[in-house]
């Protein structure tokens, strides 16, 4: 009888220790935004997509909200007020990361003011797409990244929104978007194809 109890305890201990090794499905490993590939499968089509804009861009915000919703995403659009825009945008980015956004579309009022929260977004595996001007690298000893991709903006909000939605669709499928990474010159990128 004592041998059976000892054997049962040994088996239970071995199973317990074996359970402590390896990965578990309870806490998935976050995907780095720069590691997004087709083997990752992108992200869920119903994902939250954060949009952070500057004062006066409500028309672009509505175009993005409509385009992202039509594509099956859950857009969360935030337009910073004219007063305190940089602080408002920092707060918005941090809130969207905590909310679980898979991608952020950001047109920064003061790009340098967002470096810390952009690094936080990257660390959380959020893909950051700058709208218009590029976002500067963090300079805080991080990985030296700014936005993962850049969508040049022009006078046509609808064309900018269409291009940005296509970038998000590519990311959702786990593909690299047609747009160039922020380090490349994208001033000649064609934004008229997706009308």
SSE-based structural type: alpha/beta
Strand content: 5-15%
Q: What's the gyration radius in Å?
A: 21 Å
Topology as a string of helices (H) and strands (E): HEHEHEHEEH
SS elements, strand count:
5
Helix content: 25-40%
Mean pLDDT: 76
**Shape estimate:** elongated
- Total helical segments: 5
**Ends: how far apart?**
79 Å
Largest sheet: 5 strands, parallel
Sheet with the most strands: spatial strand order: 2-1-3-4-5
Which residues form runs of ≥5 with pLDDT under 50?
A: 19-39, 139-143, 181-195
Give an overview of the whole structure:
This protein has a 5-stranded parallel beta sheet with strand order 2-1-3-4-5, sandwiched between helices. It has 195 residues and is an alpha/beta fold. The C terminus is likely disordered. It is 36% helix and 12% strand.
């Amino acid at each position: 009888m004592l041998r059976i109890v000892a054997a049962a305890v040994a088996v239970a201990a071995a199973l317990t220790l074996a359970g402590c090794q390896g990965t578990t499905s309870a806490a998935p490993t976050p995907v780095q935004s720069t590691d997004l590939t087709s083997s990752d499968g992108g992200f869920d089509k119903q994902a939250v997509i954060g949009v952070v804009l500057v004062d006066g861009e409500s028309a672009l915000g509505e175009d993005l909200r409509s385009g992202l919703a039509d594509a099956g995403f859950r857009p969360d659009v935030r337009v910073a007020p004219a007063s305190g825009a940089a602080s408002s945008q920092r707060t918005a980015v941090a809130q969207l990361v905590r909310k679980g956004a898979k991608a952020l579309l950001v047109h920064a009022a003061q790009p340098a003011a967002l470096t810390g929260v952009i690094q936080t977004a990257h660390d959380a595996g959020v893909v950051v797409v700058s709208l218009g001007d590029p976002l500067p690298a963090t300079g805080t000893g991080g990985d030296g990244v700014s936005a993962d991709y850049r969508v040049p903006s022009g006078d046509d909000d609808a064309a900018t929104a269409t291009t940005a939605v296509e970038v998000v669709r590519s990311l959702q499928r786990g593909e690299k978007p047609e747009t160039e990474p922020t380090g490349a010159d994208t001033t000649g990128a064609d934004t008229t194809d997706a009308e």
